[in-house]
Amino acid sequence: MDFTLSRRISGVQGSIIRELFKLGVDPNMISFGGGNPSAETFPVAEIAEIIDRVLKDNPISVLQYGLSEGYPPLREYMKQYLAKKGIDFEKNDLLILSGAQQCCDLVTKALVNEGDVVLTEDPAFIGCLNTFRTYGAKLVGVPMEDDGMDLAALEAALEANPNAKLLYMIPNFQNPTGGTTSSEKRAKIYALCAAHGVAIYEDDPYGEIRFSGTPLPPIKAGDSEGIVFYAGSFSKVMAPAFRLGYLVFPKELLQPITVGKQSTDVHSNTLLQHVCYEYMTGYDFEGHLEKARAVYRKKCAHMLAEMDAKFHPDIHFTRPEGGLFIMAYLPGGKDAQPFVRKGIEKGVLTVPGVAFMADTNGVSSGFRLNYSMPSDEQITRGIDILGALTHDYLAEKR
Amino acid sequence: MDFTLSRRISGVQGSIIRELFKLGVDPNMISFGGGNPSAETFPVAEIAEIIDRVLKDNPISVLQYGLSEGYPPLREYMKQYLAKKGIDFEKNDLLILSGAQQCCDLVTKALVNEGDVVLTEDPAFIGCLNTFRTYGAKLVGVPMEDDGMDLAALEAALEANPNAKLLYMIPNFQNPTGGTTSSEKRAKIYALCAAHGVAIYEDDPYGEIRFSGTPLPPIKAGDSEGIVFYAGSFSKVMAPAFRLGYLVFPKELLQPITVGKQSTDVHSNTLLQHVCYEYMTGYDFEGHLEKARAVYRKKCAHMLAEMDAKFHPDIHFTRPEGGLFIMAYLPGGKDAQPFVRKGIEKGVLTVPGVAFMADTNGVSSGFRLNYSMPSDEQITRGIDILGALTHDYLAEKR
Q: Between chain A's N and C termini, which has fewer beta carbons within 10 Å?
């Protein structure tokens, strides 16, 4: 049978990153292409201990069907946890969902019709861009600067797109740029969206792994108008394979988002929700986060020091205060794809910025480097190679 | 902010069943309203043993991000397992997904545009009906008989709906009717759909728990035209809270369905995929299934014997060969809702058939009884009460 794909899915391309990952499995390739958290941060012994205990004490409730809304004690605990960051649970509710990716999926399912505009940081996390695409949204990119979106471009995009439904952003240690949206920009972005009646989807998978600078309150903490969705993840603070995250949203949307969850996958796995709850309430979670932050702090500092020493001074790059990524930019807005290909030929994998763009036919001078997965030694060798290439590249351009 | 819900989600009502479940938590209520597998069938000790082992032997691979397609050894093993039931993996592929519910979600995402028709057994599993609704599909019901759909009605529906994309069915021990589609009907349904270019979504969550009669090959096993999607679940053979299932589909759809999975929740939880694989390959899985079947066989036989003895003879009901449900019908096609409400007043919860209909304003004379969750004693007492009500009901009608 010749299947006709739905309009929503036929518009989505296989990801460039997945193609690149095939290169990354070559054991001779130094990969700065990944996006996984560092496995040394997983609390393996504690996870084993908790699972053993809950399967003994409470086997039925961790194995039987559970609630679509999530394991109630974990829901309640996460509300208390986020209330301390300033989020108001008089006006908002919280669901435990299958990772931050599903938070994005269900908000889009509930709000975005085919043909609606979704505004997005540009470049942005490709996983969520693809979610918007699979609901037939039209993506409109707002160019990124080191401290967040270009505000004039955001205002122009809001004016030009009265049918915009959502603005997508990662304010902390953005993927792919590594940059953090400043306090001033957060306030202005909020005011602009509120004035235009556009909801904000605040994706914060990396917020807990800030390793330098001053923590900024989530945009959701100042959401007097009730326009912000806030998504967090257990992937970087517990383990990605748990596939658990949480979504905060205006209370009046509880029914439609819960119906979306039910009709998508009923509920998220219960055993691992118990693990998150027991770990956060019965172990030293803050100490665990501090250890994880120390791992990323060290790795990031090492990569930045190598880049400072070896990259041509005309190559600009971000200096992350948390998260997993640095983005470097070729001068003059030149397409980074040929440079990335040369890196791969020399044995170092990075991801060209175009992979993260709202318009996949666009041009990006950026390339993304991940520091959480490679070893220190791989970082040194890889930046040696890329550094030499930046000098070659700029010598050729003269 | 006043949110405007998407068209797809605003059409979906909260489920009648969820409202009824609130009554079911009353400890004085005898609930035949649920749909959970019997907790005594969960292999708790083996699950604990496997998790302990894989977290020791292989912590990173069970906790780190995994493949969207599923854990490769489990994928391969399930292909071998299903090949023995006659499914061809030259022309088909298989993904491990988050329960059979997500199989339905992703097939609908990939194939069904807003306004497309989905034909369905009527009544049918409400979870999947709601999935179709959340993609804006128009549902057209085909009335059920004890041995599967009314074929004349199916043919008429196919003729009347040239834009039908999918036919949804549960051939084994259907939810809610408990009936099994006969071999003859399977062949005719397949031929009719093939002739009309309509794909079949064969949902088989209960197939492994056949406790009487002769197993019938899945429709997918005779899929010479490549039109059948086949979904199975680990919920009834391992544990529902795992949220794991598998989808078999024509190979050429691997890319769009994988993209749908990525953009929905990246991948399914890895630790529990390892548990399924280790349990199926290293333990007595067939012996485990036999024990589970014995539990359901006994419970079903007990409920049927009580119904034979106590229900008014004018009340027809199905005699399941597997699964979790019996459906009983009031005579003369009369709406069962008042009868169900009377049962609730007397302390016995069942689900009215209308909850499972394509047209939620329709009329159903059926009510669904679950035998997997109540105790033997609850079954006896509950059928006593319902049996007396059937006699009252028919006395009043005279």
A: C
